[in-house]
Structure formats: C-alpha cells, structure tokens
# Entry
Amino acid sequence: MPEIVIKNVSFSYAAQNARPALDDVSLRIAPGSFVGIVGHTGSGKSTLVSLIDGLGKPTSGQIQVGTVTVDAQSSPADLAQLRRHVGYVFQFPEQQLFAETVGQDIAFGPTNLGWSTDRVQAAVQEALKLVGLPAAFADRSPFALSGGQMRRAAIAGVLAMKPAILILDEPTAGLDAAATERLLTNVAQLHAAGTTILLITHQMDQVARYADQVVVMNQGHLVKSAPPREIFADPAFLAANHLNVPAAVAMSHQLRDAGVKIDPALSIDA
Ligand code: ADP
# Structure
C-alpha cells in the first residue's frame, strides 16, 4: 500500500493568478488512512487531490505516491504512473456514465488497463458487489437506474480498477439520507479492507464518523492536519476556517475525550 508524501507543493492555474490555488502545502498520508479534506469553496481541496491523481503537475514542490515522485519537470508519462494507484470519483460522477449497459460502463477502465476479458468481467462483478448493486444490473441501461444507483454504478467503474487510494469529491451531494448512508457504509468497508480514502466533504458529521485525519484547507494553504477530535475541539478555529460543525458532533467528541461512552443509537456521529 503506497504512502502519499506532499512536499512544499504550490500550484497556479495561470501565471497571472494573484493567489496560487495551492501555496506551499506539505502533507503525509499513511497507507490505509481515512482522510477528510475540508475547507471553504475555493480553498484548494479539489486542486490538491487532482495533483495526487496526476491530473496536473505541481508548479513547485514534489508529490510522491508509493515509489513514484512527480514535480514541475515531470512528463505526462510520469503523471500517468502516479495515477496507477489512485481512483478519483469526481463530483456527480453519474454525469460521466455513457455506455449502453452498467456492465460496459464499469468495464471501461479495467479494459483500458489492458486486462483480459475474464479479469475485466470478474472485476465488474466484484465492483457491483462492493457498491451493493445486484449482479443483474450489469445488463441494465445506466440511465434506467435511480439517482443513488447511478452514483453507485459510476463509483463501481472506479473501484473496478482496484485503486489502493480512493479519492471521493463530495460523494453524497444530492443523495437522500438512505442513499448517503449506504454509500458511506460502502466507503467504510473499502477502508476496512485497506484502501486509503481521501474524502472531500462539507459534511462535518461524515468527517467525525469516519476520518482518522482531517486536512483543513484555507485559501490555498493547509492550515491544519490532525485527528478529528483535535479539529472539532476548537470552535474559534472552526469558525475561522468556515467549518460548520453541528453542535452535537463537536460535543460528542468532547464527551468521548472525557471518557464518556455514548450510546451509538443516541449519538449523531456514531
Ligand atoms: P475547492 O475544491 O476547495 O473548492 P479548488 O481547488 O477547486 O477549491 O479551487 C482553488 C482555487 O483555484 C480557487 O481560487 C479556484 O477559483 C481556482 N481554480 C480551480 N479550478 C480552476 C481552473 N480550472 N482554472 C482556473 N482557476 C481554477
């Protein structure tokens, strides 16, 4: 399982940009971590994860994933090497479904990796199982599914490539409570099986429940990387970074810190 090491990374979309999208960001993510990436809109969250996926190269600094290191001099082939370990579920991934059947859609990525037909088919079935869709859905049109099912089919297309690192950008946006819960349970299962999870979210309850590390971005800076209870224990820090934490989430962390056992049925973040 690859470690992620980000060293003094800055990134500008255009030279004339007054403020870089990322400014001297350093971060280490241990294999198998569940990292919540939070911060105001425009703070640099998506830019950070897109560089980890090799979708661009740092303007300065280095990004290392496992044994692959990229910097401002790296070639597109180097960047593609970075992507070998990473699966990126974009916002509203169902908008990228395109094939006639769910199975063909999920097979697209693994086929591009040059896998044999048998291996691709096995990966498709496994991915459907991972997202909790019945095997028979492989033959359905993706456009005949419900919104939540379409989202899970799209995520299955990323999981089929068996990434060691899974990036999810607001994966529950627009889903109802039941679909949100199902999706988060799937993600938690992947994490339990060893996948490193990088979750961009505005939902602090999700971070409190699942993350073991929280990365707080603000105006291109990484302002803090710490366990959730440390982040949520400081109301002034939360307000300064536009993090809207339901009182029950912050409070249950304080209670846990004090050694109080909370009945999971009563606790909002359990
Ligand atoms: P977040 O994911 O936290 O909302 P982003 O990484 O999308 O933040 O954006 C960081 C900064 O980079 C913002 O100022 C945003 O306007 C700018 N930005 C993002 N994408 C582009 C782009 N494709 N071209 C130019 N500027 C961009």
Observations:
- The radius of gyration is 19 Å.
- DSSP finds ten helices and ten strands in the chain.
- Residues 13, 21, 39, 41-47, 217 surround adenosine-5'-diphosphate (CB under 6 Å).
- The beta strands are 4-11, 22-29, 34-38, 60-65, 68-70, 86-89, 165-169, 196-200, 213-218, 221-226.
